[in-house]
Specification:
The complex is a heterotrimer of chains A (97), B (225) and C (965). Chain B has 225 residues and is an alpha+beta fold. Chain B has two domains: 106 residues, Probable tRNA modification gtpase trme, domain 1 (Gyrase A, domain 2), CATH 3.30.1360.120; 71 residues. In chain B, 23% of the residues lie in helices and 32% in strands. Chain C has 25 helices and 47 strands. The chains are: A mainly beta (97), B alpha+beta (225), C alpha+beta (965). At the A-B interface, loops of A face strand 10 of B.
Chain lengths: 97, 225, 965
């Protein structure tokens, strides 16, 4: 089973986590067209590559972002939402374990 | 109008459903009915050395979270663990667990008073949110305890990995739980907390495996001396 | 008669302990430590099984669980692998794939009609006529499959454990032992596993008569034993490789999931049989099998044998045979150049005739194909791979040992994503691109020389140490020199066939040729058409030859053919092992004892056990539910709702948070009032709903249904991270219990237990009060989910029983009854309340359930708002309506999810339906097309039985509008 590193709780087996979908930028709902909004809601970019994803560490209730390559299934780093550029606190760079 | 005096209500341990009501000896501790003896002292002492499981849900607890929680606890003269997911002892008789960065679980051991004092303070303060606790709580003792955990938890809980003041939130028997290592009366033990509504299930699982491994249920009385 | 040799150094049997057992009714004796096969072979019982398809007699092939010639049942377990299962005193064994025993298998006639049964025969023969399907199905089912499942098998609990180590070494042969020792010396915590009963691997039996191997193995074993940080587990196989170095280890007692920081695969290689006519006769076995028989179990493979070889290994085997007291009639070497090695010289010196450039053209069967009586030898064209039969001759013998080459035991490497390349120096696939932290050493790495293998083990250990950031030298191992350990194409065609490639599935060379002719000339397709490698041993002894044959057919180099996909498990693993203890976590409310004592029938709702209804003795479910529902309508009922999701939202921005999270309006909600809270997703689909009670300006208490509560709380946490409002979320689901007291007498019952003013004006519907109930601090909510007159009492979980008991004793004289969740569903249906997830699905938007009233579109933002602006412009495609069936309807009752039919078209479905005794009508909700939504419209429901039942749309809610109608 794959391991994932929660920025608060450390490295844990995947069974402790719940996937929360891709982190995506929503269009401005006041200015976007119906078609743009529908595309945001219903369409996903399925091509494999580097993705930012929401993950939830269930026992502690921690949401965080994982940067993962969906082709190689390699997670490059994980951090709390909004903390990526804030002094890099709680950012876990995945080294070779 | 027959509203009863609140002091006369004695709840029972959340684990009690899974425990023997007739063969065990029950007592009221911290205003909760709890099993204090499952077998005679010799048997329980032997179990404790191999793998003893004790229900300590009756320990008084107080939970609090929020950005000001840490300061608030400090104002109430509690020691604050400096790192997230670590714990510290306060006045010898109280454990302060830091769950993540801004949530705390204060638990009085037998004779501790800190949680009671905190509970008396009912004012609501911005940034300090009370977390009502209804935990099922256990002490796991004995030389086979890691053998038991090996079946219930996928993490490495050996002392080399779970350090003396670490708190971990993980899954035990498929249920979200808190685990740490502690010393009681000089004996190294593991502590386990889960939501009280999972308590009977957790007890059944722990006792089933403990019994297979030569241990079993140990009453609270063996820790009361 | 016995084929036992004198005692062998390092043998696995205990000659001081004799045990007895029976095989197909006949008594046998064995030594403790024998396997079933070795014990029978020692007693010259050589027909140990029957092949899967043709029911040909079979004996020992690998003696290593690389084939399944010997599969038995002891009446309890089935498909026991006789080659490796240790014999126990008193065992009574039978072969699994026979009709009437191995000796006189009634199905052996199939072998003689085998030309009528080519591969693909089933696909082609039985597709028409259709009406004969059931007949042929019966025939084929009886013929296919192995063993009989014992339905009385007791549940034997196998533990599933987790374990952690720095280094896991798979395979305790000389390579693995060396690797473990070097790593442990450097301080690593090492787990070393081997599927065999004892460590040592080929060092235990590949001796070429030299006893020095015994001392060498003892030395390695004592070195490993001297390291306390090495845990050796034998009788333990690595079942598969899972990401981040998780390897389940299967042992007799259960599975251990080992999480290692780094892994060395030193799993060795499987010996591959040369392919010639009748290479499957009992007595024809792999060279390594002959050695295992001799050195592990002290059993001579035969009395007068031939060694057929296509590498140097066969010469070693020949010497071991001689040492064991077996005559060796000849060594037949497919290779034209004579082997000049030391073993060849020794054999010549001992007077053994070596036929270089020759092959065994066919083995000759003794009567009933029960053994070998000789072999036909002839010259072999090693370039064209054909037998040159002009000068063929026959040698008498009673057994043939075969050595032709090896296939890497690379399952773990493949599963971990290792890139393999074909190395022509060793005629083998070897790893050339290993995943991080995974290392290969020894034969699986293409290293065959013993000293080189031990150095390769040490090299891998040092690589693992470096990978973990420790100081370690980097050594590289020189390439294999000399003759290849494997032959490029050890096949001998024969016009009459029966030259077996896959012994599990009776696949011959011609089957591959036919498959290719049919167009199945890709390795994955060929595997599926011929079934090569699909038997119980999963290609361990057959895949490599299959690849070589396909390469030859297609005129391609072997590496262009590639290999089939390797998947867990390495050996078949019992379901009991996989199941383990079987944890079923569940939550109980503090009233569980009470429910049990009062005869509740429980139902699973999410993680919870909830009381569904409380039947009295002899009462049907339906009667119990109607009786409980009537109590709520006429007097009072009480339900344990402690499993409800309960969330506190604290803080200055609490109302703002709710405004953004739910559809409704909360900023203007007054303290002490409750509002309906509906949650949508971004696409506007209804996710869940609940009640938001405002307890203070900065505190909302949200209660919601049981099953979805954890997911909703999770989404709240995520929203909070994104929005960063000044709030605190506290999930109090387990800390608080809830009791719903409902019915006309509810107020009177409650009033005697509380000082809270229950007067209608003081405490109307949709409001919340805090006060003492039966001495307990409670939050009391007027919810109209099941009744217009209802109080939901939220109190600390531990105090729920006290409050419940007080209510029950007070309510007794009012006829208060407990009711369960099944009754609750009927009650809320009567009230006309929809339940998300039951009356909605993953596509339902709020307009379809007429929930516009719960949406405040003028807010700046809420989840799903933008999608609703799109949806509200569109015509509705379906709408949830309330319907009734005819009065006194007594046909087949429609069920939830039955289809709504109009003019032969499906126009919707029933979401909830039930008979209400109180209303005396069958009532329900259904989706219909908007043309049918008006009150008075009629539509039809198709029941499970196929009849059409007419339903009429009525005004909701039922209770107000249908009672007495």
């Amino acid at each position: 089973m794959k391991l994932l590193t929660c920025p608060m709780n450390g490295t844990r087996p995947l069974s402790e986590f719940i996937f929360g979908g891709e982190l995506r930028e929503a269009p401005d709902q006041k200015t976007c067209t119906d078609a743009e909004w529908a595309a945001y809601v219903h369409n996903r970019h399925g091509a494999p590559g580097d993705k930012k994803e929401w993950w939830y560490h269930s026992p502690s209730g921690t949401w965080f972002i994982a940067e993962r390559n969906t082709l190689t299934d390699k997670v490059t780093r994980t951090y709390l939402f909004g903390q990526k550029n804030l002094g890099e606190e709680n950012v876990v760079e995945e080294e070779s374990k | 109008m027959q509203a009863l005096d609140i002091k006369t209500i004695v709840p029972i341990s959340p684990v009690a459903h899974a425990q023997p009501r007739d063969s065990a000896k029950w007592d009221v501790v911290n205003n909760m009915e709890i099993a204090v003896e499952f077998a005679n002292a010799d048997i329980e002492q032997a179990r404790k050395k191999v793998l003893g499981v004790t229900d300590v849900s009756c320990f008084e607890r107080y939970g609090v979270k929020g950005p000001q929680a840490s300061q608030w606890l400090a104002d109430h003269e509690l020691a604050i663990p400096s790192n997230p997911n670590s714990w510290t002892r306060c006045d010898q008789k109280t454990l302060v667990l830091r769950l993540g960065s801004s949530e705390f679980l204060v638990e009085d051991q037998l004779g501790g008073l800190a949680s009671k004092k905190l509970a008396n303070n009912t004012s609501r303060i911005a940034g300090v949110y009370k977390v009502p606790r209804a935990d099922a709580a256990f002490i796991l003792s004995g030389r086979e305890v890691l053998n038991l955990f090996s079946e219930l938890c996928s993490l490495d809980l050996r002392a080399t990995s779970l350090l003396a003041n670490d708190v971990i939130m993980t899954q035990v028997a498929g249920v979200s739980a808190i685990v740490l290592r502690q010393t009681i009366n000089g004996e190294p033990v593991y502590r386990l907390w889960c939501d009280g509504t999972y308590g009977p299930y957790m007890w059944e699982v722990l006792i089933e495996i403990a019994t297979e491994l030569g241990g079993g249920a140990v009453g609270l009385a063996s820790y009361q001396n | 008669m016995s084929l036992r040799t004198p005692k062998q150094a390092g043998e696995w049997i205990n000659r001081n302990k004799k045990i007895s057992f029976s095989f197909e009714g006949e008594a046998f004796s064995a030594f403790e430590g024998d396997t079933i096969s070795s014990a029978l072979w020692a007693a010259e019982q050589k027909v140990l099984g029957r092949s899967f398809k043709y029911h040909r007699p079979r004996g020992v092939l690998s003696l290593a669980n690389h084939d399944v010639n010997v599969m038995l049942t002891d009446g309890m377990d089935t498909n026991m692998r006789g080659d490796v299962v240790e014999i126990k005193d008193g065992m009574s064994l039978y072969e699994v794939n026979t009709s009437g025993g191995v000796k006189k298998d009634k199905n052996s006639y199939i072998d003689s009609i085998s030309p009528l049964l080519p591969v693909g025969f089933y696909y082609k023969a039985f597709h028409t006529p259709r009406r004969l399907f059931p007949f042929w199905e019966g025939v084929i089912r009886r013929a296919a499959g192995l063993g009989i499942v014992n339905f009385n098998y007791p549940r034997i609990l196998k533990r599933k454990q987790h374990s952690h180590c720095d280094l896991l070494v798979v395979g305790a042969g000389p390579t693995g032992l060396s690797a473990a020792y070097v790593a442990a010396k450097a301080g690593l915590e090492v787990t070393l596993i081997d599927e065999n009963r004892h460590a040592g691997g080929s060092l235990g039996y590949n001796r070429a008569g030299d006893e020095a191997a015994v001392a060498q193995l003892d030395d390695l074993l004592s070195k490993v034993a001297s390291q306390p940080n090495i845990t050796v587990r034998t009788g333990a196989y690595a079942a598969g490789y899972y990401p981040d170095h998780l390897i389940p280890i299967v042992e007799a007692g259960g599975i251990t999931k080992v999480r290692a920081k780094t892994v060395i695969v030193a799993s060795g290689a499987f010996e591959q049989p040369p392919v010639f006519r009748y290479n499957d006769l009992p007595g024809v076995m792999l060279g390594s099998a002959a050695q295992r028989l001799i050195y592990r179990y002290g059993v001579r493979p035969f009395s007068n044998g031939i060694v057929v070889t296509a590498n140097d290994y066969g010469y070693r085997v020949a010497i071991d045979l001689l040492e064991a007291g077996t005559k060796v009639a000849a060594v037949v070497d497919l290779r034209p150049g004579a082997n000049g090695g030391a073993q060849a010289a020794e054999l010549t010196h001992r007077g053994i005739k070596i036929y270089a450039g020759h092959c065994v053209y066919e083995a000759l069967a003794s009567s009933g194909k029960s053994g070998v009586r000789g072999a036909v030898i002839c010259a072999y064209d090693d370039k064209e791979n054909v037998a040159l039969t002009d000068n063929k001759f026959t040698l008498e013998c009673d057994g043939i040992a075969m050595s032709a080459g090896w296939a890497p035991a690379g399952a773990l490497l493949y599963q971990a994503g290792t890139g393999m390349q074909f190395d022509y120096g060793v005629e083998q696939f070897v790893p050339n691109r290993l995943p991080e932290g995974l290392f290969a050493a020894g034969k699986v790495n293409g290293i065959f020389d013993l000293d080189q293998r031990m150095r390769d083990g040490a090299r891998a250990a040092n690589d693992a140490l470096s990978y973990l950031g420790l100081q370690a030298p980097h050594n590289s191992i020189e390439q294999h020199v000399g003759n290849s350990p494997s032959h490029a194409y050890p096949m001998v065609p024969h016009p009459k066939g029966k030259n077996f490639v896959d012994f599990d599935e009776d696949i011959q060379i011609k089957d591959f040729v036919n498959a290719a002719k049919e167009g199945f000339d890709n390795i994955e397709l060929m595997k599926r058409f011929t079934t090569v490698g699909m038997g119980p041993s999963q290609g361990k002894h057959s895949n490599m030859n299959a690849i070589r044959i396909l390469a030859k057919i297609r005129g391609l180099p072997v590496e262009k053919i590639g290999t089939t996909t390797s998947r867990p498990f390495f050996h078949p693993t019992p379901i009991g092992h996989l199941g383990g203890r079987g944890f079923h976590s569940h939550r109980l409310t503090s009233l569980h004892d009470w429910h049990q004592a009062n005869g509740a029938v429980f139902t699973d709702v999410g993680a919870w056990k909830r009381a569904a209804y409380y039947p009295t003795t002899g009462q049907t479910k339906e009667d119990a539910i109607q009786r409980e529902a009537l109590a709520v309508r006429k007097t009072a009922g009480i339900i344990d709702s402690s499993s409800f999701g309960k969330i506190e939202v604290h803080g200055a921005d609490a109302a703002l948070f709710l405004e953004r999270f739910f559809t409704g309006s909360f900023a203007d909600q007054s303290v002490g009032s409750c509002r309906y809270a509906m949650l949508l997703d971004e696409s506007g689909v209804v996710v869940d709903d609940g009640i938001a009670s405002r307890l203070a300006e900065d505190l909302f208490y949200i209660s919601m249904g049981t099953s979805n509560a954890a997911a909703v709380y999770r989404e709240m946490q995520r929203a909070q991270q994104e929005w960063q409002l000044t709030i605190g979320l506290v999930n109090v689901t387990g800390a608080y219990g809830a009791i719903n007291l409902a019915g006309p007498s509810a107020r009177e019952i409650l009033s005697s237990l509380t000082d809270v003013d229950l007067a209608y004006e003081a405490f109307p519907n949709s409001s919340v009060r805090e006060g003492i109930v039966a001495g307990v601090q409670a939050r009391i909510i007027r919810v109209t989910f099941v009744s217009d007159m209802a109080y939901e009492l939220h109190v600390p979980m531990a105090q729920v029983p006290h409050v419940w008991n007080a209510l029950m004793s007070t309510g007794k004289k009012h006829g208060l009854r407990p009711f369960g969740t099944d009754t609750q569903r009927l009650l809320r249906l009567e009230m006309g309340n929809h339940m998300p997830g039951i009356d909605t699905d993953g596509l339902t938007n709020p307009f379809e359930i007429c929930a516009e009233w719960a949406i405040k579109m003028s807010k700046p933002y809420f989840i799903g708002q933008r999608s609703l602006t799109i949806l509200e412009k569109r015509p509705l495609r379906k709408q949830l309506v309330s319907f009734v069936l005819a009065t006194n309807f007594n046909g087949e009752m429609p069920m939830d999810c039955n289809l709504v039919i109009d003019g032969g078209e499906i126009i919707g479905r029933v979401t909830s339906i039930g008979y209400s005794k109180f209303i005396d009508r069958c009532i329900g909700f259904a989706y219909v097309t908007p043309s049918k939504k008006e009150v008075g419209s009629e539509f039809q429901i198709r029941t499970d039985g196929g009849s059409l039942v007419t339903a009429t749309v009525v005004k909701a809610p039922f209770l107000k509008n249908q009672k007495g109608a």
